[in-house]
Amino acid sequence: MSMLAGGIFTMFDISASALRAERARMNVHANNLANINTTHDKFGNPNPYTRKRVFFQEGAPEITGSPTLGVRVARIEEDHDTQYQLKYEPTHPDADENGYVKLPNVHVAVEMVDMMMASRAYEANLTTMDTAKQMHQGALRIIA
Q1: CA of 119: how far to CAs of 7, 21, 73, 96, 97, in Å?
Q2: Max CA-CA distance within the chain?
Q3: What is the band of 72 on the pLDDT scale with cuts at 50, 70, 90?
Q4: What gap in Å lies between CA 81 and CA 90, rounded to an integer?
Q5: DSSP label of 84
Q6: Under a CB-based contact definition with an 8 Å cutoff, are residues 16 and 63 in contact?
Q7: How far apart are CA 15 and CA 32, in angstroms?
Q8: Which pLDDT belongs to residue 7?
């Protein structure tokens, strides 16, 4: 019995780590979308927002107690590979001498696809947790 219960609770822990990681991923994408028109940094300088990316790593010892079970956010980095967008808008206060405004390197389509993938992964882990719960309830009915 203890082996079965430990296995089911381990499934909960693994799925919980994935839920936490995917929630962080969705938050980063939402923040990217929220800053799609931000042309100044936090100090008020004319530096456009730089898109952020989430990187996962195997293991979530704070949840699963194991360095190999589950998943966690390894880091969140700025995306310096994607080019900033230039928009011709000569009347904009941040326009350069040629009339172009440097806009964030955030693309709506990319962010929405990434957010949908994170949402689907989140839903899959909720389903896994529900299945583990049903298995646990079935095991309890058998031994009761």
Answers
A1: 26, 11, 16, 39, 42
A2: 79
A3: very high
A4: 27
A5: P
A6: yes
A7: 26
A8: 63
- Residue 54 to residue 134: CA distance in whole angstroms: 32
CA distance 9 to 34: 37
Q: Which residues pair with 72 in a beta bridge?
A: 57
In whole angstroms, what is the distance from residue 38 CA to residue 137 CA? 50
Q: What is the value of pTM for the model shown? A: 0.84
Query: What number of other Cβ atoms are within 10 A of residue 36's Cβ?
Result: 17
87-100 burial, b at 16+ Cβ within 10 Å, e below that, comes to eeeeeeeebeeeeb
What would the pLDDT profile of 89-132 be if each residue is shown by its tens digit?
999 999 999 999 999 999 999 999 999 999 999 999 999 999 88
* H helical segments located in the chain: 2-34, 61-64, 108-143
Residue found by looking up tokens 């980095």 in the block:
77
Is the pLDDT confidence value at 67 over 80?
yes
Instruction: Please report the pLDDT score of residue 4 as a whole number.
Output: 39
- As a whole number of angstroms, the distance between CA 102 and CA 57 comes to 33
